[in-house]
Write a structure and sequence with these properties.
About 30% of the residues lie in helices and about 25% in strands. It has 9 helices and 11 strands. α4 crosses α8. It binds adenosine-5'-diphosphate and magnesium ion (MG).
Length: about 325
Amino acid sequence: MKQSISEFDLIRRYFTRATPGAVLGVGDDAALLRVAGGMELAVSTDMLVSGTHFLPDADPFLLGHKALAVNLSDLAAMGAAPRWALLALSVPEADENWLQKFSAGFFACADRHGVELVGGDTTRGPLNLCVTIMGEVPQGTALRRSGAQLGDDIWVSGRLGDAALALAHLQGRVELTAEEFAACALRLHRPEPRLELGLALRGVAHSAIDISDGLLADLGHILECSNVGAGIRFDALPVSSVLRPYLAQATGKHCALAGGDDYELCFTAAVARRSAVEDISGKLDLPLSRIGTIVQDGGCTVHAADGGIIDIGESGYDHFA
Ligand code: ADP
Ligand code: MG
């Protein structure tokens, strides 16, 4: 990178922090990491592309947060505890104001969740943020998509659809008040990975996934990987007071069932674990809602309160569809 600030200075100034949890962090050809005995390394990567996942003028602090948060959400869905991250960054120019804010947002999220940035790559090019996250999980205890069992309850954390409702407002499909929009936009721009929930669900849930592409799409992955089907009760879906009035409309249904970007967890657990799940909800002060049941097969059926079936057509965000 040939700029006013050198690539080396840029990395040192904005992306180099102490990494007491690593044998070696930023600055050599590779980081050195030691996984504790009896643990498995959970590794995942997620890319945010300008124009696809965010607008080029998006707030850099929030982007820094989100680039890490969406990766942490994948660890949460595995029941893994976050440890280390790598950041591969392509930026059109070395804009120090932008880099300072992006790095502050990234490290604010990292500090809150005990993540150390141990390396990455920095190049000039179209704005593109790629984070690789690493976490630890005791051997054999990770939550997988493939573990759902017949008769399991289906649960989701938090509230669904607010991020999609904020997007619908930005696209002029609904009109929210300033206050309503602010509440929903927070979910869109500042997702909170459900890490404590993921850890608490080890040994309780049979399967789990994070909801990044919408409930139906992501639950669909559990169903496919587990070779089962699902029945969902539409009235049981947890939605905010902002989204609730829209549920009678197609836009509202779509937000709740197929809205992406909420980063809540969807998981299944045996009926016998209901009180264990409710205890977790109380301890974490996080709503956990029982929205349906795992059935033999037949994909996912969404039942309305009047006995009808809700079909919203295409069921999630697919980059290539
Ligand atoms: P190399 O040429 O061997 O790939 P680099 O010059 O790309 O090395 O990187 C030097 C060091 O800085 C490496 O330790 C690398 O992991 C780290 N690094 C580069 N970019 C970033 C970044 N955006 N965030 C964190 N660490 C980075
Ligand atoms: Mg490099």
